[in-house]
Specification:
mainly alpha; 0% strand
């Protein structure tokens, strides 16, 4: 606003630089812009400030956000947006506070609302949280669809944080299904998305998940390569979580590659950082490796790892019982049995459920994309049709205008030519009459009348030449029209009419005076009409002088002729000769 004031003040102080036309345009533009700005400001969504506060701290202080949301109450006056945002933030806060949920009704309603409103960021976040809840409820198919939908929306809106989170969700689904190739695919996708955000913590964590995906796919060399980078970064940042999990993965990889000493070293370092980091699978692998290498003669130095590698979950199989009794052969056979049981009917059902759900989602997405494409095609066709119709209407209007202008020009040319022709005829008749008439009064009248006719003929002739040359613009046309009116008005002036009447009466041996006497009660226009007929003016010329349509002149002539025909005038036949 300050720059606008300076700009206008500059024009006030320098009037010589002021452009009136520019100022007249910029004024309405500024007013319109201000009105639009005011309208947009008034249309901005009003959000409860408590929800805004909770949203701003939910990542860094989820427990504080949870307190705010627990105290928040939905009322009848709460807007739909506030209701949806509250459901989203409550679910997010619970997720950040490690509260596992299995009821997706609140977050589903929030996701539907934000999808309907076209709010891609909130919709992607809601779909990620919905997928996590579905995973907690062991609904892997529904979870995979929620993550896939959120991933598509995040990609459309270039929302890299939620693209990475949804890709992580799919990584977790396929980790549960032991699908190594899909794990690598989505772990890479998450890593690339987090790289776009620049968030170092999420970059490192997604890199750790990529290492885990390679490990699950039995690509141990790649696992060791990635974890080596992570160990370096974790040591610099003193990140014990990344450090312990990287060491655990290296222990798995080294053990699988037969590097027993390096594996035990990695496992021991991981256990020092996190005593409960060993999974049941780690424990079984360690027991198998020690059993295969040492048999029953296990060194005393490895007693600690044997203790750590005890399997407490004996409900799955009898491995733990045999291991506790130092029956390693039986324990090994039990482990093989457990391993074979992993590819169970339940696993097949889970895999098929996820595959079918993803397939159905892809079909639905393609159908929606095709429908959207068809809608765009229809819109383009409608726009093209509207353009063609508008073009045709515009062409027709332009054509009609051109034809109208051409018609008017031709009419003006014809009127002027008619007027010139009639004046020229009168000029010739007057010249001939001068030679035959020896009356001095008549000659004086002839000279006056000839002077009038010559003047009008000269003007009409000049105007016709200008029209026929076609070198005139709008102003010239207006000027010519004005001159035509002057000619016509000149013929209508009382002095001109009086001299014309005197001339016509003298040259017709008093016939015009007789007409006036016989039809003393007719209008002035009818007397002048008969006068112009006696002069030999054409109907077109008379229409120009009277400023009437040619059809109106014909009607006037017809009525006057009928009046004369019905009359008892002695010179009726002589009057009718002029019609």
């Amino acid at each position: 606003m300050l720059y606008l004031q300076k700009f206008l003040r500059h024009f006030e102080m320098h009037p010589e630089k002021r452009n009136i036309r520019f100022i007249s345009i910029i004024g309405p533009v500024i007013m319109t812009s201000m009105l639009i700005f005011s309208f947009l400001c008034s249309c901005r969504r009003s959000v409860d400030p408590r929800l805004v506060d909770a949203d701003s701290i939910i990542e860094e202080c989820p427990d504080s956000a949870m307190i705010i949301l627990d105290e928040y109450e939905i009322t009848d006056n709460s807007s739909e947006y506030d209701r949806a945002l509250y459901g989203l933030l409550l679910t997010h806060a619970r997720y950040k506070n490690f509260i596992d949920e299995a009821d997706d009704s609140i977050i589903s309603a929030a996701a539907d609302y934000f999808l309907e409103q076209g709010d891609k960021e909130e919709a992607a976040r809601a779909l990620f949280l919905k997928g996590m809840i579905e995973m907690n409820a062991d609904k892997l198919g529904e979870a995979s669809v929620a993550f896939s939908h959120g991933l598509d929306i995040a990609r459309e809106g270039k929302l890299y944080m939620w693209e990475g989170q949804c890709a992580r969700g799919l990584f977790m689904v396929y980790t549960f299904l032991c699908d190594g190739s899909a794990q690598i695919q989505y772990a890479k996708m998450a890593y690339e998305a987090f790289m776009m955000t620049g968030n170092v913590d999420w970059i490192n964590y997604s890199k750790l998940e990529l290492a885990r995906a390679y490990n699950n796919s039995l690509n141990y060399d790649k696992t060791i390569e990635i974890t080596a980078e992570l160990l370096k970064l974790a040591l610099e940042k003193k990140d014990t979580l990344i450090l312990s999990e990287s060491l655990q993965l290296r222990g798995v990889a080294f053990l699988a590659l037969g590097k027993f000493d390096m594996s035990i070293e990695s496992y021991s370092m991981a256990c020092e950082l996190n005593p409960v980091i060993l999974t049941d699978k780690d424990k079984r692998n360690i027991n198998i490796a020690i059993h295969e290498k040492y048999g029953d003669d296990i060194p005393e130095c490895l007693s600690w790892i044997i203790e750590k590698a005890k399997v407490l979950d004996t409900s799955k199989d009898s491995f733990g019982l045999f291991a506790d009794q130092d029956k390693y052969k039986e324990a090994y056979e039990s482990l093989v049995k457990y391993k074979n049981s992993q590819d169970s009917v339940l696993s097949h059902i889970c895999r098929n459920n996820v595959a079918e759900s993803i397939s159905n989602y892809e079909k639905m997405r393609k159908a929606l994309a095709e429908e959207k494409k068809n809608n765009y095609k229809l819109l383009y066709c409608i726009l093209i049709l509207v353009f063609i119709v508008v073009s045709c209407v515009g062409f027709w209007i332009s054509r009609e205008k051109i034809l109208s202008e051409k018609s008017m020009r031709l009419k003006a040319e014809a009127d002027l030519e008619s007027l010139r022709s009639d004046l020229l005829t009168q000029l010739e008749k007057t010249e001939k009459s001068k030679k035959d008439d020896s009356n001095s009064t008549g000659r004086s009248i002839d000279k006056d009348f000839v002077k009038i006719i010559r003047s009008k003929y000269s003007e009409a002739n000049s105007l016709c030449d200008n029209y026929y040359q076609g070198k005139y613009n709008k102003k010239d046309k207006e000027k010519i029209t004005s001159e035509i009116n002057n000619i016509v008005n000149g013929l209508k002036e009382k002095s001109s009419v009086d001299r014309i009447e005197e001339y016509v009466n003298e040259t017709s041996d008093g016939l015009y005076a007789s007409f006036k006497s016989d039809f003393f009660d007719i209008t002035e226009d009818n007397r002048r009409l008969f006068l112009y007929l006696m002069l030999g003016f054409s109907s077109r010329t008379i229409s120009v002088i009277f400023n009437l349509d040619i059809s109106a002149v014909y009607n006037k002539k017809s009525r006057l002729k009928a009046r004369i025909t019905k009359s008892q005038a002695s010179k009726k036949e002589e009057y009718l000769k002029f019609f």
